[in-house]
Specification:
With 244 residues, the chain is an alpha/beta fold. It has one domain: Aldolase class I (TIM Barrel, Alpha-Beta Barrel). An eight-stranded parallel barrel has the order 1-2-3-4-5-6-7-8. It is globular. The two termini are 21 Å apart.
């Protein structure tokens, strides 16, 4: 899915909601969690069914699947395959190693698991990320301003933005925590059309000012929807206020 495709889906469905499918005992009902992995899988499948009309993306944090070892990787693959074809499937993997290693990561997430997008960190520089960037129609969300981060992170944002490669086959977006939405004008002056992946809403209680130059962006809600999928229409309505 291209960035332009995602934009059209957002405008058609009138939503910017991205549902985070990150299973943990803190949010999955105890009656489900205690029955084991098969019950968790069935629950996640039901969450997808109940939210598919309200979301344009799903984010799967790989850590919550890797915790189960080989069985968890199988679950990750099956949940990715269950996602609606008109939504963006994001592997929240936060990879970022030397290029040689990233080539293997790219093969795993692009070819073996079939994700549309991935989160990466840029702290070894842009060149090592090239295995992710040179794949057409894939999305690469670069960690830029994260929800829980040390103060020094703000000092490197400008350099990361300035050195962004241009005209890559993959499209580049940014992970930008909702707690820092008051700082978005700086980013939008440089890249007004880049997609943002915005965590921090819901359980983390961030607020986004109505005047924030958010669009195009994916508003991530995880724990609130996993605990109660009936909240998805409410979050869709919240996201609509940031659509053009």
């Amino acid at each position: 899915m291209t960035a332009a495709d995602l934009r059209q889906v957002a405008l058609r469905k009138r939503t910017l909601l991205c549902v985070a499918l990150d299973p943990s005992p803190e949010v999955i009902p105890a009656s489900v969690w205690q029955r084991g992995l098969d019950a968790v899988e069935s629950y996640l499948q039901e969450v997808i069914r109940l939210t598919r009309d309200y979301a344009i993306a799903y984010k799967l944090n790989t850590a919550f699947y890797e915790r189960w070892g080989e069985a968890g990787w199988g679950l990750l693959r099956r949940i990715r395959q269950a996602l609606p074809s008109d939504t963006l499937a994001i592997a929240d993997a936060k990879r970022g190693d030397i290029a040689y290693t990233n080539t293997a990561y790219a093969h795993a997430f692009w070819d073996e698991l079939g994700f549309d997008a991935i989160t990466v960190h840029p702290y070894l520089g842009w060149e090592p990320l090239s295995p992710f960037l040179y794949r057409a129609q894939k999305g690469v969300f670069v960690l830029l301003r994260t929800t829980e981060a040390p103060a020094w992170q703000a000092q490197v944002v400008e350099a990361i933005l300035r050195e962004k490669p241009q005209a890559t086959p993959a499209w580049i977006g940014w992970v930008w925590g909702a707690h820092y939405s008051h700082e978005l004008h700086f980013l939008r002056q440089i890249y007004p059309e880049d997609w943002l992946l915005v965590p921090g809403l819901g359980a983390q209680r961030a607020q986004i000012p109505k005047e924030a130059p958010l669009f195009p962006a994916l508003l991530v809600v995880g724990r609130g929807i996993l605990a109660d999928p009936a909240q998805a229409p409410t979050w869709q309505q919240v996201s609509q206020s940031f659509l053009p």
